[in-house]
C-alpha cells in the first residue's frame, strides 16, 4: 500500500494503475422534473471521461425507466418502433401536443401517462390534485385502439393527477353518474368524484368491450388496493 501512497503535493494518477480497461455500467433512472435517464447517463459518462479516456475505461450506458416520463421513447427505441404525434387534453384541461409509440409491427402501443397528465405539465400555481385530469390519457388509448393495436402498455409514473383514472374512462366512453343519474362534469378532476354514485359502461369503446384490446400497466410500485403487479 505504501507504494501507491501520495501526498497532496504529488497526486496519484488513478488511471495509471489500470492495465486492463475498466468496464463501467451506467444505469441511472430519472430525476423528477429534472433530467431524464438518458441525460443523466450522458452526464455521468462525461464525468468518467474526465478521469479515464476510451483506452482506460469502457463505458456502457443503460438508462433505466420505471414507467415514468420517457418510458415510451425508451421502449420504442429498444424495439425499433415508431412514434406518432397526437393532440390531447392536458392535465389542466388545455390542448397539448403528446405522443404514443408503436412496436411489434404496430400490434402493440406504448404510451406514457406523463405525456398526457404529467406533473411537469401542471403550472406550479395550478398544482391542485383535485382538479387535474387523466382525460388525455384516455384519448391516447383511443388513438391506439383506433389504430387496431391488440395490446397497449401504459407507463404510469410521474403523473400530476389524482382522479383515479376517471377522466381516462370518460374519454373511453364510460359515463360517471351521480345519485340523480346526471353525468359528472367531463374531466372534472378528483373533486367531482365525491358525487359519484354509479358507473355506466355501456358506452365504452367497443374494442375494450369485446376484449380486443389488452391494457397493461407499467409501474414500479405494487398497489394492494388495485391489482397484482405485472
UniProtKB/TrEMBL annotation:
Keyword flag Disulfide bond: no
UniProt keyword Transferase present: yes
InterPro entries referenced in this protein's UniProt entry, alphabetically: Glyc_kinase_flavodox-like_fold, Glycerate_kinase, Glycerate_kinase_sf
Biological processes, Gene Ontology terms: organic acid phosphorylation
UniProt keyword annotations, A-Z: Kinase, Transferase
GO MF entries: glycerate kinase activity
Signal peptide location: none
Protein name: Glycerate kinase
Organism: Sporormia fimetaria CBS 119925
